[in-house]
Design brief:
Blueprint lengths: L6 H11 L11 E5 L2 E4 L4 E4 L2 H4 L8 H11 L14 H12 L3 E5 L2 H20 L7 E5 L8 H4 L5 H4 L9 E4 L4 H7 L4 E6 L15 H11 L3 E5 L23 E4 L11 E5 L1 H4 L15 H15 L2 H18 L6 E6 L4 E5 L6 H10 L2 E2 L1 E3 L3 E4 L7 H14 L4
Parallel strand pairs: 3-13, 5-6, 5-7, 7-8, 8-9
Antiparallel strand pairs: 1-2, 2-3, 4-10, 9-10, 11-12, 12-15, 14-15
Helix pairs in contact: 3-11, 4-11, 12-14
């Protein structure tokens, strides 16, 4: 007797065998190509989340899959106890893309953030001369940098933060986008300012014009490291290689992840100059899988795609379309829209449903998106999406809002 596999059956199995730390839509995917995916029941969906920007280049990009397949037949892991032939080229190529000297490879985005915290603190003690044990890092309210114990210690989201203490000290929270508050918080023990150039989890929150330039200026004036968490915003998503480029700003450290792994393997990195990352000495930091041959081969393919500028231009052009279509919905079921390249936060009138309910209705019409905070949904399709498919997705949003 053949067992019929359904979305409902898979959802029930997951609920029975894993903790409920996620609340996914009841769609079980089995295949994908480009911007489209297919579930176990054969239904086709336009992916408008792209793995929270981990799939900037779509599902199964031939250059990325080709690099992975070739490396799988050669060597996948050495640990950092030995060298391999992909590590040097990957670090050199990524450093060149970012205009920096060194790359510290890791796996998850949270690991990159944790690494940057360690580096900033040691830099503060060894280079800036901060008092032992007093290093302070300034962060922004409504941030999302990961879910490790140290990172959630400076989260203002009760869901991420509450009931996981005691918390790690050494962080000061200021309002996002508030230059005066940031300047007032900096003191002699401040070693870094850690912010997202655009806050993704908060609802694609774009700071006021000039804010990133102010952060750069204040960090330079006070000899403080500017750490830009570009894990979601970087690598083409906003129409630029890095979202900081929207204001012509260069931070001291880039934190990268998600799209760096091409949707194939988890790859993250801290990218900075030698006078910052050079504070690390043998034995002080490491990762068994960080910088493994497979990850480096995939990362090199991603860097190669970004080097041409094609994807950045495409995200800008499609972003103009996305912005135009979404702004036409203001006052017609939508109360707020924020767009940066091919990334949008859309505030739906709560009278029409929660963000979760809106995403469920979109899924029923073949569009996958994700809610965040109340009635806000995020749209971040792969950069390979066509203009026609993107417009079709907005048509579906219009339909569930009762506009058409």
């Amino acid at each position: 007797m053949t067992t019929v596999v359904t979305n409902e059956a898979i959802a029930a199995q997951v609920d029975a065998t894993t903790p409920h730390n996620y609340h996914p839509l009841p769609v079980a995917l089995v295949s994908g190509g480009g911007a489209w995916v297919v579930d176990v029941e054969g239904r086709r969906y336009l992916d408008c989340l792209a793995g929270y920007s981990a799939l900037n280049f779509g599902h199964g990009h031939p250059a990325i899959i080709g690099a992975a397949r070739e490396q799988l037949d050669r060597l996948t892991l050495t640990s950092r106890a030995f060298l391999h032939d992909q590590l040097g080229p990957f670090c050199a190529e990524l450093a060149a893309l970012a205009g920096k000297d060194l790359v510290l490879p890791a796996n998850s985005g949270a690991e990159a953030v944790e690494s940057a915290i360690k580096v900033a603190r040691k830099w503060g003690y060894r280079v800036k001369g901060v008092r032992a044990g007093q290093a302070k890092i300034i962060v922004a309210a409504d941030n999302f940098h990961g879910r490790t114990t140290t990172i959630i210690s400076f989260s203002t989201d009760p869901v991420a933060h509450d009931d996981f203490g005691p918390y790690t000290p050494g962080f000061q929270i200021v309002p996002y986008g508030d230059t005066a508050a940031l300047e007032a918080a900096i003191d002699a023990d401040t070693v870094a300012v850690l912010i997202e150039p655009i806050q993704g989890e908060a609802g694609v929150i774009i700071p006021p014009s000039g804010y990133l330039a102010d952060v750069r200026r204040l960090c330079t004036e006070h000899r403080v490291l500017f750490i830009a968490d570009e894990i979601q915003s970087g690598l083409g998503r906003t129409g630029y290689t890095f979202a900081c480029e929207r204001e012509g700003v260069v931070p001291d450290m880039y934190l990268l992840g998600k799209a760096l792994g091409g949707g194939v393997v988890p790859v993250s990195a801290v990218v900075a100059d030698r006078d910052v990352l050079g504070v690390l000495k043998p034995g002080e930091h490491g990762s068994t899988f960080g910088g493994n041959p497979l990850a480096c081969a995939v990362g090199r393919a991603v860097v190669g795609l970004l080097r041409t500028g094609e994807y950045q231009r495409r995200a800008r052009d499609l972003g103009d379309l996305l912005d135009t279509r979404l702004r036409a919905l203001l006052g017609r079921g939508v109360t707020g829209v924020r767009v940066a390249g091919l990334w949008a936060g859309v505030d739906v009138d709560p009278a029409l449903g929660t963000g979760r309910e809106i995403c469920e209705r979109l899924a029923a019409r073949g569009v996958l998106a994700k809610d965040t905070h109340g009635s806000t949904i995020r749209l971040a399709p792969p950069i390979v999406v066509t203009a026609e498919d993107l417009s079709w997705a907005i048509d579906q949003l219009e339909a569930i809002l009762g506009i058409t």
